[in-house]
Amino acid sequence: MSDAAAAEVGIGTGEEAAPDRKRFTEVWLITMGHSLTHWYPATFYLLLPLIGKELGLSYSQIGLVMTCQYLAGAIANIPGGIFVDLVPRKGLLMALSLFWVGFPYLIIGFTSTYWLLLTCMCLVGIGNNLWHPTAIPTLAQRFPERKGLVLSLHGMGGNAGDALAPLCIGALLALFSWRQVVVVNLIPGVLMSAVLLIFLGRLQLGAKTGKTAHAGDGQSVGQYLRDLRSLAKNRPLILLSVSSAFRSMTQNALLTFLPVYLSYQMGYSAKWVGACLFGLQAAGFLASPLAGHLSDKMGRRRIIMSSMAMTAVVLVGMGLAGNSPIFVFLVAFLGFFLYAVRPVLQAWLLDATPKNMGGISVGVLFGTQALGASVGPILGGVLGDHYGLSATIYFVAVSIVIANLFIFFVPAAGADADRTKR
Known about the structure:
The chain is mostly helical. The protein has one domain (20-207, 221-421): Growth Hormone, Chain: A (Up-down Bundle). α2 packs parallel to α4 (90-108), α4 (90-108) runs antiparallel to α5 (114-142) and α6 runs antiparallel to α11. It is globular, with a radius of gyration of 21 Å. It has helices at residues 3-8, 17-55, 59-86, 90-108, 114-142, 147-173, 178-184, 186-200, 221-231, 235-265, 270-298, 300-321, 325-338, 341-351, 358-387, 389-407, 415-421.
């Protein structure tokens, strides 16, 4: 690492090795925390068919549950991003976010009313979307030359949570009721929140006494708000966010109705539904670091477009496969391509936006993603009610094709621009 790069991430050139190892320990802690922010929603996707049957919910009502979560997240993301940019205690914010994600699920275990269920999902949406505007810019600023790699490791944490949760919870549901499971499920979140608070609670960006430099050091709130207006004209930010919204529409509609499809139409038990979701997420776990590393070397655009194109092909194959075992086989291939693009999109966005606006930039990205994610389940539910769940699968295939179209119009920026010149 060059002297300039070392200075940028706040380490002294005379003591590079030990601080760098220490900071990479922080990467793993943040990655573990990220895994639990995905563990809880992944758990809920597996519980949703059981809750739907117990409460007598239609497909549209099941879709509305997830729509409420992501709509609340969409509303909270932009003010949350501004808040994150202006508050230096990043470790404290991450610990708070993780606890906020887990606690509403505990309340769900004691409810029998649909409206309280929707309220809890709104709270989850707000808490879950405080994590990403905090963690992602923090990692990108600490490792500016390895942005794609560290964000892919962070993404691997999410994939690990997504993969392990349905596998573990599916096994527990064979022994306990879903209400007992959600109570026990609070324990890992509380423990991880405590670990983050102890080891990262004092982690700051932009603090006068800290060693980590921040692009917004010494910046007034007024200057930040003036810079915020210019961000509205950032074309890569807008196009990447809209593309990501359609990708999230695909992902969330699929995650909502794939367990329902496997349970209702293919007759799978909760254990086997969990195993199928594990296959989906485990493939994404493998794809994430590979895609992040290749995007650092080959460019973000090439990796994103190829992954999204293959996602559409696999989804069409799933629709044609129907109730055959090939459908389940294709699920793993889908996970590999669908989840590969997440960290690459985030790295590309941060390449193209000012460093002191990292929180709000990620907030805009995840806010538009949440809008897409909120629309996906309700549209998928309406299509399922009227035309069957196979129509829902075709709907998510079309949405990923639309997502890919927006990537064509994103101008090269940052690392991608440098590679184009070479």
